[in-house]
Every structure is written in structure tokens, then in C-alpha cells.
């Protein structure tokens, strides 16, 4: 059944919801005063990295469904719109500092088979000599579920695909018909004001892009740092997590520290030139989980927001669940993802 739906926000959630609605035969307009990817989705890190394959939860399942679907998803988006999301399932290495960490990681090998299936793996292996973080045990976790994409490239590719399928992306528009609010930190602030308590807030992050061509190498995660080789011959490193800050978009000495830590972890980055520095606000609810559901006491309005640091790793499933609600009135949203106000 065709209907007009307006999406507020042209980040990864807004564009993904629009794409899913178009795929189901409805018409869609995206409204964002700043254009596609102006918020957190315009970052630089681009790590699509799964949670550990144990203590399984609904949030981990939502993420897994998106990560497993991502290859075909981005191939279709690129085919329809002609953009390049820079997607690749290149895997990830994580150093294991002590024997206890090795044992924990080995117990998760079986859990990965149980929860992830047999198309990808999580294994403890000797650290590769040519591209590996320093690991005191000489061992690392290698998983093949982790992928990377270019945030800017992915946003551009999805915007192109949406418009190619007849969707509109505009800077302003009336609140007529169904409205889906996917407008990041600003949206969480507005929702908090509406309900009279904090639902979520923007958390500042800083990251950088270095000039190092490791495009086919796995990404590195250790000491709370992502080191992500990209398809264009750069490596992104990040990020900080800042609740208190003076400016949401200015970089500072905290990013200098991130860069130095990344260089200490990976000798290949020691002489790599810094190409760009990025800072922005990322939407965070009470947890990293996204929130999906009707806007309280505002008929015809829905919310799809949050997904702190994992937005690109859950967006496909979030879009499907949101489209179910808006177009069909069908509620498949897992309890941890409900708005719950």
C-alpha cells in the first residue's frame, strides 16, 4: 500500500529507514536542514565490529543480522545509485595480553559457531608478523565477521540510491503524514524535553585519518582503540568518548593522544601523516542500543535513534523493524530496543 512517509534526519538511520520504506513500495521524503551525513554518520572510523559471541542478547542478534546482511545490502545500494560505500568484510585482530585472556577467547570459539553460524569465525591464532598489534602472548583473536566501510561513502551511496528509487531529500518540509524521527543527538534532546526527563544525549567523539595504505588488511581493536584500514588507502583511528566538552566539533589534545596510542600499537603508523581530524556528537541512549517506537503522546510520529558507536552495525535491522511499525503496524521490536518511556 502506497503512503507518504517523512523521515527527519539524513544520517545512517534516516537513510536506511527511507530505503526500506521505498523497497516496500511506499513514497518517502527525507528532511534534514544540514543535508546527508552532517551529524555522527559523517564520521571517519567506519568499524562494523561485532560484540563478543557470548552471553547472547537481543541487541547482539540485531547487530548480527545487520552484519551478515551487509555485503548484499551495500552491493544493491551501490548498484542502484552508483555510489561506492567502501564496504569490505576484512576481519579484525585483537591482541591478547595475558594467558587468562587467551583462555576466555578460546571459550568463545565455540560460542561463535553457536551464535554466528559457520559462515564466519572467531579464532585464537598466532599474531601475523606483517600486520598485527603488539601482543605479549604472541596470540590474537581473528574474526571474519568484522567489516569496514567509509561513513561518508556509505551515506553518499545510500542517498544516491534513495533518490534513484524516487525518494526526495530536502532541507525543510511540513509535518504532514507519518513522521519518523532519526535525527541523532538533536532528536534525543528534543525527545527528552518532550517527556520531561533525559532519554539520551550527544556524546562527543574524536577520530583521525592517517595516510597508510593497508586497504586489504584486517582492522585492529585493542585498548579501546579502533584502527581501520579503508579501501582508499587510508587508516582511520578512534575514538574518544567525552560526556563533558567545550566544543562538540573541535579536536584537541585528546585526539593527539588517540593518534599516539594507535602509532604505539601499530608500528606501520609511526610515520603516517595525519590527513584529517574529526569531531562530532554521537547519539547515546541509556545504553549502546538503538531505540525504536512511537513518540509518546504524538500520534503518527515514531522514533528510530541511538545506537551509540554501532549505528552502521545495526542500521539494516533497525530500518526493517521501523518500517514494520510505520507501514504495517506490526511490532517486532525486541524489548531492549523499545522506547520504554
UniProtKB/TrEMBL annotation:
Keywords attached to this entry: Oxidoreductase
Keyword Oxidoreductase: yes
Location of the FAD dependent oxidoreductase domain: 4-325
UniProt GO cellular component terms: cytoplasm
Domain of life of the source: Bacteria
Listed Pfam families: DAO
Gene Ontology MF terms in the entry: oxidoreductase activity
Protein name: FAD-binding oxidoreductase
Species annotation: Palleronia caenipelagi
